[in-house]
Write a structure and sequence with these properties.
Length: 238
């Protein structure tokens, strides 16, 4: 298998590749796209070089073919001229001269036949080379189109992945401040504030209780004085 056939086979394989199917089966679609982009880029470069070489070979072969065609015509004219001269000399009574020019005509005809054989052999090869060039060009066009699609798909895929990542970050941030979640930071902070408020209220109530007790003691002392005063009055009356 020639290098051009190998390249053509790889181009055909890549051109027929089902990108969606490959991406669906890939564990890491972005990495798969990067690898495909590298494969397509490298194969396109190789294919372009193969096309250039093949076209150069075809053009050289076509030039040789035209030279063979020109030679066929030229040797045909020479054979005809030699044959005519031989007949003229034969008509003038010069058989030796006629034999000489007949031999020249034979040589010319032999050259003509050789060039005709070269044409017959080279024409199919040139047609095959032109068909290969057409296949390479078609494959190149398809691969370049797919390469652009791959680059576009990669950009879209990366953008979607970043969007999903951003959404997940927002979701995580919102979850961390979910007031209905008793484990969230905000819930813990609110519970701490409520606890501090309750402690402050407890301290206030404790202080208030002590003050009321003190005033109650004062009131009890006042009652006792009144009792003693009244008792003294009773004694004085007696």
């Amino acid at each position: 298998m020639t290098q051009k056939q190998t390249i053509l086979g790889r181009i055909s394989q890549l051109a027929r590749a089902n990108i969606n199917s490959l991406l669906d089966r890939a564990e890491d679609p972005e990495r798969m796209l990067d690898q495909l982009i590298r494969d397509y880029t490298n194969s396109i470069a190789e294919a372009e070089e193969a096309v250039a070489q093949t076209i150069a070979n075809v053009r050289m072969a076509e030039s040789d073919l035209q030279s063979d065609r020109d030679a066929v015509s030229e040797w045909g004219r020479k054979a005809a001229a030699a044959s005519k001269k031989a007949e003229e000399m034969r008509g003038s009574g010069d058989p030796d001269g006629a034999f000489k020019f007949d031999d020249l005509a034979r040589v010319a005809l032999g050259r003509q036949i050789q060039h005709e054989s070269d044409i017959k052999n080279s024409e199919p090869a040139i047609q095959q080379q032109n068909a290969t060039v057409d296949q390479l060009k078609d494959g190149l066009t398809q691969m370049k189109t797919k390469l652009e699609d791959l680059k576009s798909r990669r950009g879209t895929l990366v953008a979607r992945a970043r969007s999903v990542e951003a959404q997940e970050n927002v979701h995580d941030a919102m979850a961390s401040i979910d007031v209905m979640d008793p484990t969230s930071d905000l819930a813990r902070w609110e519970d701490n504030i409520r606890r501090q408020e309750a402690v402050a209220q407890g301290r206030s109530e404790a202080q208030s209780t002590r003050l009321e007790d003190q005033f109650a003691e004062l009131e009890d002392a006042g009652d006792q004085s009144e009792i003693e005063a009244r008792l003294q009055q009773l004694k004085n009356q007696g």
